[in-house]
Amino acid sequence: MSSVLLVDDDPGVLDVVAFTLRREGFDVDEETDGARALAAARSRDYDIVILDVMLPQVSGTDVCRALRAESDVPIVMLTARDAERDRVLGLDVGADDYVTKPFSS
User: Which CATH fold would you assign to the domain 3-100?
Assistant: First the structure.
């Protein structure tokens, strides 16, 4: 079973995305702030990290930068920040993809 670290400070987003991933057979761990996300990522080998940009404690951008320095785990930024400069920054710090909210299936 593939493992996912899902990081978002919005409980509604966490619930919907985690439910959908679990329904598809993924093992999902959820975190709500950047510091806890870093600790989780360092304690387990995830197959992918889905990461919001705007997080308490440590920003998603800083989490991404730190994870990329330590690991080649795929990182997808999932965020409401949709300006071009935000997308460029996310990719520059190591995200493999950048998806903006809201989204639909």
Answer: Rossmann fold (3.40.50)
